[in-house]
Amino acid sequence: MSVMVDIRSVHKSFGSLEVLKGIDLAVHTGEVTVILGPSGSGKSTLLRTVNHLEKVDRGTISVDGALVGYRRSGDKLYELPEREVLRQRTRIGFVFQNFNLFPHLTVLDNVVEAPVSALKRPRREAVEAARRLLDRVGLADKADAHPRQLSGGQQQRVAIARALALEPRLLLFDEPTSALDPELVGEVLDVIKDLARQGTTMIVVTHEIGFAREVADTVVFMDDGRIVEQGPPADVLDAPQHERTRSFLSKVL
Amino acid sequence: MSSDTLAKASSAPGIPEYADSLPIVPRRRLGQWTAAVAVLVLLGLAVNSVLRNDAFQWDVVADYFTTDAVLRGLWLTLWLTAVVMTLGFVLGALLAAARLSANPVLRSVSWGYVWLFRSIPILVQLLLWFNIGALYPHILGVRTVDLLGPVTVAVIGLTLHEAAYAAEVVRGGILSVDRGQIEAAQALGLSRWRRWWRIVLPQAMRSIVPPAGNMLIGTLKGTSIVSVIAVQDLLYSVQLVYHRTYQVIPLLMVATVWYTVVTSVLGVGQHYLEKHYARGSERTR
């Protein structure tokens, strides 16, 4: 099975606070990796380094065989020009905890924006594709609404459609249900499960243990900037090897 | 609320079963009525004194209201305002961009500009520019007094002053846009240019338009200061007339009424502009 994301000894500090202390992780094509861990464990930061929203201090990240944000020449890494980084990002979808939909644009324009301006698709084609995607997340009738007229769950589904519009090779989810009312969590998880069934490669940072158990191929438990353990959900969730994992799970289950 | 608590409420002592048919009598607001009447009486007295005081000479006001000299002055006031606003906001936007950039030199220079030009009263600045020939008698081989006439000095002085304030207004607008908006645009691969024009600026405009509208009205009236360097704006035009005819009050009224009319029109324009940029901000429709 080919490796989609290859993270090697990634370090990252904010000022004097080291949030990633050497992360190694491989995500295989077509698999769902769920990252669990307490707040401040570095899981969101790790996710954000994968599409270069955060620069790493040390280590490398490759997606689909290409280094993210850098070009290697000899034994040096040269930072890529912004244009190149933006092009790489169009192949990596990112879904934010707070949706970050563009409030001044309609739902349809939110989805159409990136294919038209970043991929130079003809607008008509992009609109058709966007309507299909909105239909897929169950929001075909909301195309002309503005984001603030939607519920949180609907907004997050639009955000997923917006990420899918670039036809990414990889989808990253940063706590996609943490900002939602409990009754709205299900509708968003259903969309993500549906994507998982279709073989989309995904990394999901979440607190939803049930979702991890059901959907994940690999569960990664992080604490204090390190990966404590990883493996199939049956191992990590039901028979954790480390005390830290056990105590975390006992608190959230 | 459960039906149990409802039942208890309706059986409270003194409240009959048919509680929903009891009429509600609003509290009497004596204070509000007294205040309203007092204000109306004062207002009536003021209007009466204005209309009945012959010294206002409303017939003279009417005579001069649309004379060529006054209209030429009004026209200069209008285009001077437009030019100063436009140049001021272009320069202000550049200053705001510099202030928010990652480059420490640009940031400091922008900060210094705003500090300096907000510190100098506009009147002092206009007089300085008007007398710049004393410092630099020649600019690029041309005599400074020939190069910088009163109107040019007015444009330069007012623009530099305006830009300092515009920079702060634009910067505030940009800062009001949620950081997540820029990250989302970056994650979608939108170019820097596209992020700025399509995502940040339209959202920043919501916070920029109200203070910018204030500044526009302030600038319109503020241009009257150029009368001190003999630029024939609306105020200076009526001054030229009353220096000749000694009808000071009616001619000042001509200027007053024109300033009020233009300000009102601008206010209406601002209302529609604000509505335009409020798109998508209402929760329900």
UniProtKB/TrEMBL annotation, chain A:
GO terms for cellular component: plasma membrane. Signal peptide: none annotated. InterPro entries: AAA+_ATPase, ABC_ATPase_HisP-typ, ABC_transporter-like_ATP-bd, ABC_transporter-like_CS, MetN_ABC_transporter-like, P-loop_NTPase. It comes from the Bacteria. Gene3D superfamilies: P-loop containing nucleotide triphosphate hydrolases (3.40.50.300). It is a peripheral membrane protein. It holds the Pfam family ABC_tran. PROSITE patterns: ABC_TRANSPORTER_1 (PS00211), ABC_TRANSPORTER_2 (PS50893). GO terms for molecular function: ATP binding; ATP hydrolysis activity; ATPase-coupled polar amino acid-transporter activity. It is an enzyme of class 7 (translocase). Residues 5-249 form the ABC transporter domain. Its EC number is 7.4.2.1. It catalyses: a polar amino acid(out) + ATP + H2O = a polar amino acid(in) + ADP + phosphate + H(+). Its main location: membrane. Keywords: Amino-acid transport, ATP-binding, Cell membrane, Membrane, Nucleotide-binding, Transport. It is found in: Cell membrane. Belongs to the ABC transporter superfamily. This is ABC-type polar-amino-acid transporter.
Automatic annotation (TrEMBL), chain B:
Pfam families: BPD_transp_1. It is found in: Cell membrane. It is a multi-pass membrane protein. Gene3D superfamilies: MetI-like (1.10.3720.10). Keywords: Amino-acid transport, Cell membrane, Membrane, Transmembrane, Transmembrane helix, Transport. GO terms for cellular component: ATP-binding cassette (ABC) transporter complex. The chain crosses the membrane at residues 33-51, 74-98, 110-130, 248-273. Residues 74-267 form the ABC transmembrane type-1 domain. GO terms for biological process: amino acid transport. PANTHER family: L-CYSTINE TRANSPORT SYSTEM PERMEASE PROTEIN TCYL, MEMBRANE COMPONENT OF AMINO ACID ABC TRANSPORTER. Belongs to the binding-protein-dependent transport system permease family. This is Amino acid ABC transporter permease.
